[in-house]
Design brief:
heterodimer; A: 163 residues; mainly alpha; globular; B: 105 residues; 3 helices; 0% strand
Chain lengths: 163, 105
């Protein structure tokens, strides 16, 4: 199952950055996000997978598709990047990926997945409002202020001007 | 069906996804496709956090909380970025990065 999901993630993320039709690229991004949620389900983080599906696959991708429909024609193909731009980018990505993968494979991490108990939503909620050790009350409040600021900022930015 | 997968497989998967996102960010010219590459990068970081949490510290929940916060920040970032993109499109009828050379209000 892990191999299936990771193959889907890798293939569709490559297609996302190479597809020349922008709406198809958004659809491939949707596949990537949904199979990431599948990975979370397999890791028994059901709440996290639900959040991933709702916010990422439900919210962000729909937002991206709406803005694509607002700003470009569907049939239009994106121009391919020039070779002068493509080769250095591919070189950077390949060099970084090989470096990181060699370091990861040389290091010996202990353990593999054994504990598959479910994290209950009650525990998550208790940690989110707890301000002691392992409590996340402060980041929770900061995130809520950030979301409010982002909402107001988005409305102000996208509003029509009078002039 | 999922037991026995070592941590390094998750790390290799998220590394590949991260650098695919970096490649897309460097190559693409359209603003929305660059935003999609950023989403790929953030998503790979989320996979990293979750895998570390599940495999090395299965009794704690830190990685999961950080993933939740990353998702919230990504949502905020995407909404503001799309508002900016729509505003730019309204001004110059184009969302290529190379056509944007004036930052006047």
């Amino acid at each position: 199952m892990f191999l299936l999901f990771s193959a889907v993630i890798v293939i569709f993320s490559i297609l996302t950055v190479t597809s020349r039709r922008i709406l198809r690229a958004a659809t491939f991004l949707l596949f990537v996000l949904v199979s990431t949620a599948g990975l979370y389900f397999l890791l028994r983080y059901n709440y996290l997978a639900a959040i991933q599906l709702i916010v990422y696959a439900g919210g962000i991708v729909v937002l991206i598709i709406f803005s694509i429909l607002l700003t470009s024609h569907i049939a239009e193909k994106l121009p391919t990047a020039g070779l002068l731009k493509k080769w250095p980018a591919a070189l950077v990505a390949l060099a970084g990926a090989t470096l990181c993968i060699t370091v990861i494979l040389q290091h010996n991490f202990p353990g593999s997945i054994g504990n598959t108990e479910l994290v209950s939503v009650t525990d998550i909620g208790n940690s989110l409002i707890n301000y002691g050790k392992y409590g996340y009350a402060l980041p929770f409040e900061v995130i809520s202020v950030l979301l409010l600021a982002a909402m107001i900022g988005a409305i102000v930015l996208a509003k029509k001007r009078k002039d | 069906m999922f037991e026995g997968v070592p941590l390094s497989w998750f790390l290799v998967l998220s590394t590949i996804m991260f650098f695919v996102g970096v490649y897309g960010f460097l190559v693409r010219k359209n603003l929305i496709t660059m935003l999609m590459s950023i989403e790929l990068i953030l998503n790979s970081v989320c996979i990293n956090f979750v895998a570390f949490n599940k495999i090395l510290y299965p009794d704690h929940m830190e990685g999961m909380f950080f993933t939740i916060f990353i998702i919230a920040v990504a949502a905020a970032e995407a909404s503001v970025a799309i508002a900016i993109i729509i505003n730019i499109y309204r001004r110059i009828s184009n969302i290529d990065v190379e056509k944007m050379n004036e930052m006047k209000y």
